[in-house]
Amino acid sequence: MKRIFTVLAIMFILPALAMAQGAAAAGQKFTFEFVDGANLKVVLPDKTELVYNVGLFEGDSIAPGASIVTGADTSAEFKLSPNGSIVKVGRSSTFKVKALGVANGDKNAFQVAAGKIKAIAAKGSNISIGTPTALCGVRGTDFVVDVEGGKELLAVKRGDVQFDKLDANGNVVDSIHVLGGQEADALAASFAATPLPVEQYDQQFADLAFKKLSESDVPQSSPEPAPAPDQGAAAAAAAAPAASDQGAAKPETKETQNGLVAWLQDIMGFEIGSVTIDGTTYAKAVVQPNITVGKLRLGLYLPIIYTNDLFNAGDWYRPAGDNEWSFGSDYNWKNDTKGAALDLARDIALKIKYLEYGKQLEDPFFIKIGNLNDLTIGHGLIMRNYDNSTEFPAIRRIGLNFGFDAGGFGMEALVNDLADPWLYGGRIYFRPLPGSKFAIGLDGAVDTNPASGLALVGQNTYGDPMFVSGGADLDLPIIQGNGIFSLRAFADAAATMPWTRADFTDGSGKVVAAGPQFNLVYDQSTNTPQNWGAATGFIGNVLFLDWRLEYRYYTGLFTPSFYDASYDKMRSSYVIKYGQYMLNPGQYGSAPTMMGIYGEGGFSLVKDRLNLKLGYGWPWSPSANSLEQNLVLSNDEFHAALVVKKGLVPIVNLAGAIRYDRRGLAKAISDGTFQLIDSNTTFSGDIQLPVPKTPNLDLAITFTSVPVRDAAGNIVYANQAAGIPELRPSIGFETRFHF
After folding, report:
1. Which domain, by its residues, includes 48?
2. In the structure, what pLDDT confidence band is assigned to residue 547 with cuts at 50, 70 and 90?
3. Peptide bond connecting 45 to the previous residue in cis, omega within 30 degrees of 0
4. Per the structure, how many domains does the chain have?
5. Of 140, 129, 35, 42, which Cα lies nearest the Cα of 84?
6. How far is the CA of 673 from the CAs of 664, 677, 683, in angstroms?
7. 103: domain CATH number?
8. pLDDT of 404 strictly over 90
9. Is residue 714 part of a domain?
10. DSSP bridge pairs for 291
11. Is the residue at 93 inside a domain?
């Protein structure tokens, strides 16, 4: 253990030491260094417009008085030389260079008229950045200014920024200090610095990560007090209260702002508490560092889960029977090198909660590794919101999802668990029309062992099948996203069939031969397809509202979003259903054809502190003669997710998230069998409450529903014949520390 934490400490220390540098400033130039996208222009004081690649090129200097304007798909990076400060202007933003210093110590003035920028100011900088109603004065710090959506927000990652609120004449009417880990909004009802929750860091900083310029190259030291702006300096000095009077922490010393301590404050999380696994209550102590470098995000999970003795390794919980802290030492490296190496790799992998780079549908390349709760193929007709972490932390899987977009073509692929893979998926797509985003895609997914949860006799009974799903899709962006309105049309078609690896027979002696069961998707006697589905509709957003509306049509046992959040615990029941139909494929002819509308909407309000998402679809059968019959035949689906972040609920500062996904809701309510948690339901969440007067400490409760497993790790079934698992709630109580 000592060696492990020593290695971790070294990993933390080296990057922190590498950031300790210094520099001086002289006459300044503001240079255009890099653009991501092509929709960029500079408007000169005489209103002349210089467009990227037509009068404006990387390496050009931007003159005082000029405004930089980016489009909805473009961001740009700039450098103040020789000072060393760097600025990234985000998408759909207007950023003005008001004045550049000539002599060392002169002020460099900028203004954010609209949009969002990130700035990393070098040591000794004298920089002011204004918004329509406020002014920021900085000397060596890392911060974001966000002027959009009815806010003028300053978020500080490191340092000390003087934030002045101005009246209509530009005079200072109020002044505060915003420190590292705090934010303030000039348009809020209360002009005050408030804590910036750790989970908000990515929202405010990650989408403005520098691609060409290096943050570590900016000369940094511990921040100096921010200078008072030129306007109303005396008034600002007199009016500015001490940071402690505003409920903020006192400005940090040079020692705590620099190097290792400041870096650890940004990344470190720690929790202690209890968790119930397979009916046994364990105590736990978990270190959870979260590191963001540009578009790269890494979250580690370093747990000790034990029954009685924290310091007795023999008392620790072992996921799937594996001593996850052995790192190969359980094996003899000389006699069993392969086994030891695999154990080492597995134990290291279990420490990765997530590793992500880029964003799906936004970046040319993205990759996600670890706990993944939103695995989706294409538009989701085959797989949507599949979750490989429904039994976390009892079962920890290292999923993989990656893809790239090369312009004319692209692909994405996924696997549910690198250590024990059985669910695979992927999509390839092409854009046949040059200059158009119209795409044609092919989708697929395979579960190589859906009967693994059944007893051996169950696997043999149904031919040890695989589930094979395939389809095609069309995607047509009509209005590209600009933060205000977007619209995309789509159409998908898919089918699912079992592929048995062994012959099997029923009690009457009827035999189903091994191989792909094509007769379940195409009836050769009538030349008609069956057990397939299609969907078409629109996806878009209006301001803060994201929405989706689609029409669905499907036959036989085909289920839209077959691989979803509930799939892991329901796959055994699907094996039994498909097995019964393989023995009597004629039943497909009488199976109802279903159709219906699925709608979904979600919004984010109050600086992304409140997020709500709701979705519902109720299919109906044209062959049904009554509402009651439709309830029996249909399998409606309901989805809800609520996220409340710190800063929304006054006084108590409550935070948390709840997710509820349910199939067959209408039928259960109608026949009186509704239960909050059953085999058709995925229900999970957490609630956390800060400890009063202890800003770095939260109390939390986590809850989810998980299948009951026996001592060997096999699922216990409430109804073995139907493959319905027995479920129990898993509840954890935690004390969470953050720095």
Report:
1. 23-249
2. very high
3. no
4. 1
5. 140
6. 11, 11, 17
7. 2.60.120.1440
8. yes
9. no
10. 298
11. yes
